[in-house]
Amino acid sequence: MPFANVGSDSIYYTEHGRALAGAPRAAPMLLVHGAAASHLVWGMQARALGEITRTVALDLPGHGRSQPPGRSTMEGYRDVLLGLLDALGFNRAVVVGHSMGGGIAQTLALSQPDRVAGLGLIGTGARLRVLPAILEGILDDFENTARLVVEYAYAPGVDAAMRERALAEFRACPPAVTHGDFTACDRFDLMARLAEIRAPTLVIGGREDLMTPVKYSEFLSSKIANARLVLIENAGHSVMIEKPDEVNQALIAFVKNL
Q1: How far out from the chain centre does Cα 122 lie?
Q2: Which residues fall within 8 angstroms of residue 187, CB to CB, at 6 or more apart?
Q3: Which of 23, 25, 92, 254 has the smallest set of CB atoms within 10 Å of its CB?
Q4: Cα(214)–Cα(204) distance, rounded to whole angstroms?
Q5: Taking a C-beta distance cutoff of 8 angstroms, is the pair 212, 99 a contact?
Q6: Does the 3-256 domain belong in CATH 3.40.50.1820?
């Protein structure tokens, strides 16, 4: 099992496409999950992208196999990404983030533009406000709050088994770490700074996303120079799980055109 030492953290990650590490002009890819999730959300993407470039999906601190503590700011998680890039020997990478992971990716692109060869923003926004009831409920009524969040994370009518797997993963993340994640989201606001992002950017949203609606994706693509917007039908917030083939097609085309 691969772990990387990043400061005092031991960060778990999976890797695909190692044989392509030396391929010319093939920037590696780093996949960053969202709140209370893990590298598992990228299962379909990691394999597909591994066919064309070296692809790494990590567990942020406190998530999956990476031990707590988590973080409560995007900057704190950004520093973990920087440390992982260093540990893996990646001078630059295409950074793809979902939801909170998209906020982390934007923060990295603004603070360390030379390290970001491309930016993939999936089911995310430039501001990610969280209802006070969710922030409080994570600590006071975890089970019902978990069910509420997972209910909003998928398009209506999605397979019940998919929701149950998502609920099990949400439960697996310690409540204190989950609360830190949602606190980081609630504090996050880069709406006034998007024009400063210079990395080639792909924005992907689900047409039925209830957590980060289509207008969030449209705002990102309108403010980031030369960003490309892909909206996927019959998909909600967890678009890369609900519609993996469509997401993979967009990401592969994006990487090949860098």
Answers
A1: 7
A2: 72, 73, 74
A3: 25
A4: 9
A5: yes
A6: yes
Q: In the Cβ-directed half-sphere of 195, how many Cα atoms lie within 13 Å? A: 1
Q: Which structure tokens are listed for 203?
A: 């924005």
Q: Summarize pLDDT for 138-152 with one digit per residue, the tens.
A: 999 999 999 999 999
Q: Cα 219 vs. chain centroid, distance in angstroms? A: 18
Query: Beta-carbon neighbour count of residue 1 at 10 Å?
Result: 6
Q: Which two tokens stand for residue 250?
A: 């967009």
CB 90 within 8 A of CB 118: no
Angstrom distances, CA of residue 129 to CA of 8, 67, 104? 30, 26, 15
What letter represents residue 224's amino acid? I
Give whole-number Cα distances, 153 to 4, 17, 114, 147, in Å.
30, 30, 33, 10
Q: Which pair of tokens denotes residue 69?
A: 């503590």
Close Cβ partners of 176 (under 8 Å, ≥ 6 residues apart) = 62, 68, 69, 70
What is the per-residue pLDDT for 159? 87
Is 100 within 8 Å of 108 (Cβ atoms)? no
Using only C-alpha atoms, the chain has a radius of gyration, in whole angstroms, of 17
Structure tokens at 131: 């209802």
Written as one letter, the residue type at 26 is: A
Residue 21: pLDDT band with limits 50, 70, 90: very low
